[in-house]
Specification:
The chain is 46% helix and 16% strand. By secondary structure, the chain is of the alpha/beta class. It has a six-stranded parallel beta sheet with strand order 3-2-1-14-15-9, with helices on both faces. Strand 6 (145-146) and strand 7 form a beta hairpin. The protein is elongated. Bound molecules: 5'-O-[(L-methionyl)-sulphamoyl]adenosine. The site of 5'-O-[(L-methionyl)-sulphamoyl]adenosine has 19 residues, from strand 1, helix 1, helix 7 and strand 14.
Length: 527
């Protein structure tokens, strides 16, 4: 069986989960569900990043011991996944023993091997330089700006502090040529293309050795053989992707099946860690780098950067309560071309719900299924000969699988939706043109053919939308009497069987009516 391994970043447990976290996990879920649909054995991993200074500071601020703190906060992230309808196969915490063992093993493996230039990968030195706790990242003086408040800041806006401490280094400076060759040989290793270019020009500028241990605090995994040092949190965190498939047991079924990972899904802010440091660490340890890192953009809220200090953080659970899970999933995957930045606004959310879902898809389903229930004996109609228009419609829907498959391979989630909804729009035009309500009186046999065509379109559309809107599409497939074992790609051409009895139709997507909006004849309601 073909295999597919997709990972979300592991989330820092310093904070409550917000829309940005939900977004990355959702993208992984849509991909995981599509690949399962397409016959792959899938492993979908998410989890929490629990060590390092950022989390230690958050725990101290809360007045709680870091382990107790992470035990508690990690739960919020674990719970977000099922709330978002995510189908992850595993959830990893970096404070688990399996992970500590794995991180110490990768350190030893790196230390035991040489760089492409024949030097030791790891050496002991001293770090003197800038560090941003918010990003858990080291910065060069040249990358910093000084604000009107006199504080130095990283390009991300995070404040930096001066650090001087003994530290182990990873000899990244020896890996530049190897990395450039690797990007050249693997054009899909980093996507989208803008990020790939960004990464390559960063590497071309020349790489500095990377500090991979800290000594001024102890909330981390100890360096084997030198317990005064804890490992740099990004070395610890990135390693989660191999821990979860059994590392250091490289002979395990999981490791052999799923490593190298198919896609590491990340936000654009953490590309450098995933596309520069991580492949170098892996290669240094004698392991294959992941096949692809794909970086999505960032959401703003009604045009503003999302931040806790601005108080405009979007709570995904509240969104789901207000608009419905499948509606939120659809919106997030459809509103913004995946890979680009985008803006959340309530108006856009409601527009997508009412236009694409209620009007276009919901209405098509409702019109067809209630018409069949009333006028075609509540069972799948028996088609006669297909006209050119019928064939053209059926062919467009049949072609969708290949289109969606190709889009998914590039993480073009919005493109796949575009293609499917173009067929929905076409089907709405087809209903109007064929007018089954007129045929009912003039040509019932032709009416049956038209309804059959429409039900076939709905079947194919529902099959492909399952990864995005699993609950509603399961209901639509139930209403089309598609057996549960005929809902994956292998059943793509298994057309509806004429005469199959259909359950009573139900609405799919209710129109959203703002509860605060004025109702005709009434004054505005209080918010
Ligand atoms: N712990 C690291 C990842 C380690 S992976 C080995 C981390 N965690 S995070 O919690 O800060 O961020 C996780 C993800 O959330 C990132 O992919 C980030 O891009 C995403 N988002 C955070 N805010 C976001 C938006 N406003 N919009 C979209 N995604 C954003 O980084």
């Amino acid at each position: 069986m073909k295999s597919f391994y997709v990972t979300s970043p592991i989330y820092y447990v310093n904070d409550v989960p917000h829309i940005g976290h939900a977004y990355t996990s959702l993208a992984c879920d849509v991909l995981a569900r599509f690949m399962r649909f397409d016959g792959y054995r899938v492993h979908f991993l998410s989890g929490t990043d629990e060590h390092g200074q950022k989390v230690a500071k958050a725990a101290a601020l809360a007045g709680v011991d870091p382990q107790a703190f992470t035990d508690k906060v990690s739960q919020n992230f674990r719970a977000l996944l099922p709330a978002m309808g995510c189908s992850n196969d595993d959830f990893i915490r970096t404070t688990e023993q399996r992970h500590k063992d794995s991180v110490q093993a990768i350190w030893r493996a790196m230390a035991a091997r040489k760089t492409p230039k024949g030097n030791d990968n790891i050496y002991l030195g001293k770090y003197d330089g800038w560090y941003a706790v918010r990003d858990e990242a080291y910065y060069d003086e040249s990358e910093l700006t000084t604000g009107p408040d006199g504080k130095k800041r990283a390009p991300s806006g995070a404040e930096v502090e001066w650090v001087e401490e003994p530290s182990y280094f990873f000899r990244l400076s020896d890996w530049g040529d190897w990395l450039l060759e690797w990007y050249e040989k693997n054009p899909d290793a980093v996507g989208p293309a803008t990020r790939r270019n960004e990464v390559m020009s960063f590497v071309k500028q020349g790489l500095h050795d990377l500090s991979i241990s800290r000594t001024t605090f102890d909330w981390g995994i100890k360096v084997p053989g030198d317990e005064k040092h804890v490992m740099y949190v990004w070395l610890d965190a990135l390693t989660n992707y191999i821990t979860a498939v059994g590392y250091p047991n490289v002979e395990s079924d999981l490791f052999k099946t799923f490593w190298p990972a198919s896609v590491h899904m990340v936000g654009k802010d953490i590309v450098r860690f995933h596309a520069v440091y991580w492949p170098a660490f892996l290669e240094a340890a004698g392991l294959a780098p992941a096949k692809r890192v794909y970086a999505h953009g960032w959401w703003t809220n009604e045009g503003q950067k999302i931040s806790k200090s601005l108080g405009n953080v979007i709570d995904p659970i509240k969104l789901i309560e207000t608009y419905g899970l499948d509606q939120v999933r659809y919106f997030l995957m459809r509103e913004v071309p995946f890979g680009q930045d985008g803006d959340y606004s309530q108006a856009a959310m409601i527009r997508r719900m009412n236009t694409d879902l209620a009007n276009d898809l919901g209405n098509l389903g409702q019109r067809v299924l209630s018409f069949v229930a009333k006028n075609a004996g509540a069972c799948v109609p028996t088609p006669g000969d297909f006209s050119d228009a019928d064939r053209a419609m059926l062919d467009k829907a049949a072609a969708l699988l290949a289109i969606v498959r190709a889009d998914m391979a590039q993480q073009g989630f919005h493109k796949a939706l575009d293609a499917v909804f173009a067929v929905v729009a076409e089907a709405n035009r087809y209903v109007d043109a064929q007018a089954p309500w007129t045929l009912r009186k003039t040509d019932p046999a032709r009416m049956a053919t038209v309804l059959y065509v429409l039900m076939e379109i709905l079947r194919r559309v529902a099959l492909l939308l399952q990864p995005y809107m699993p609950t509603t599409m399961a209901r639509l497939l139930d209403q089309l009497a598609v057996p549960t074992d005929a809902r994956d790609a292998s059943a793509w051409d298994k057309v509806l069987v004429a005469g199959t009895a259909l359950p009573a139709p139900q609405g799919l997507f209710p129109r959203y009516v703002d509860p605060a909006a004025p109702v005709a004849g009434e004054g505005p309601k209080k918010k």
